[in-house]
Design a protein that fits this description.
five-stranded mixed beta sheet, alpha/beta, 41% helix, 10 helices
Length: 306
């Protein structure tokens, strides 16, 4: 059986995925280790961690008859978009491609996220149409206009955060509360036990928002000895309300389907609130967090167009 291999080496996850003409067969991931109490990794440390992880992930993938290889080579499809950690996956893809004598395709990490979310939501057809997307993670909080009517998915940033990213705010809250980075799933469990002491006041204007106020607020709550579960709930409700207002404003400008992609969008509380919007689509957790499935699927589509 012939398959297509995708590789993604993002800020905090080493990923490989394999798909065939019917869909994703394997989607293997390994988080990069972050020391306790720290809120992230330097790029040099991320590169070193990917080098150590990549052979383990490849062993999990196993042997296959590979027709083409794709990789994430940059964060976004914009000029100057660059992050050293993606060079690891790009180098591995080029090396394997040359040895195997198969085509090598390069995509952005963001396009991979949107594609994986569309696949998980069973709406791959949207990739050939016009739609909107949210890409909400530790490194990105953006609203996107996506257009695949030309046969190539063109993504334009039309809004998002002006300061802190949603995933950053969540992780910083979690670390403040003693959780291990990345903190999303653990913070969500804490929030389930919390009480909302007061509704959050968020800053949203049109399709833009500010999230840095959340970090200041949770620090104040912590200094006042507020229960940790209540702080966790407040933080997630702040993100939820911000994304809800942004989605409402987006719908006033565009009457298009919306795909929600990125690790933050795997949060069940946030997903439940945003599910009220018509033609809103979400990925399962496996395809929301950083993964290479979208890259494998993009590789398949590009190969079949050759």
């Amino acid at each position: 059986m012939s398959v297509f291999l995708g590789i993604d080496t993002s800020n905090y996850t080493t990923s490989m995925a394999v798909c065939d003409e019917n869909g994703v067969l394997l989607n293997e991931r390994k988080l990069l280790e972050v020391k306790e109490g720290e809120r992230g990794l330097r790029q040099s440390d991320a590169v070193f961690a990917h080098v150590n992880n990549i052979s383990e992930i490849a062993e999990r993938i196993g042997k296959h008859n590979i027709r083409a290889i794709g990789c994430s080579s940059k964060p976004r499809d914009i000029e100057g978009s660059y992050m050293p950690c993606f060079k690891v996956g790009e180098s591995v893809a080029e090396t394997m491609g040359h040895i195997l004598g198969v085509p090598i395709f390069k995509f952005s990490h963001q396009t991979g996220h949107v594609t994986a979310a569309a696949y998980s939501a069973d709406r791959m057809d949207l990739l050939n149409k016009e739609f909107n997307a949210f890409h909400v993670s530790g490194g990105t909080t953006e609203i996107l206009h996506c257009d695949g009517t030309s046969g190539k998915l063109v993504i334009e940033n039309i809004g998002g955060t002006l300061d802190l990213n949603a995933g950053q705010a969540i992780d910083r809250t979690g670390v403040l509360l003693g959780l291990k980075f990345p903190c999303g799933p653990a913070l969500e469990k804490m929030a389930e036990l919390g009480k909302l002491l007061f509704p959050p006041s968020v800053c949203v204007k049109g399709l833009e928002c500010n999230l840095s106020g959340l970090e200041n607020k949770v620090q104040n709550l912590k200094s006042e000895n507020t229960d940790a579960n209540d702080i966790a709930l407040y933080a997630l409700k702040f993100i939820e309300k911000t994304l809800d207002k942004l989605t409402s404003n987006l719908r006033k400008e565009y009457d298009l389907p919306i795909i929600f992609a990125g690790g933050v969008m795997s949060n069940n509380m946030i997903k439940k609130t945003l599910s009220k919007y018509k033609d809103a689509y979400f990925a399962e957790r496996e395809f929301s967090a950083d993964n290479a499935a979208g890259i494998a699927l993009l590789t398949r589509e590009k190969f079949l167009k050759i």
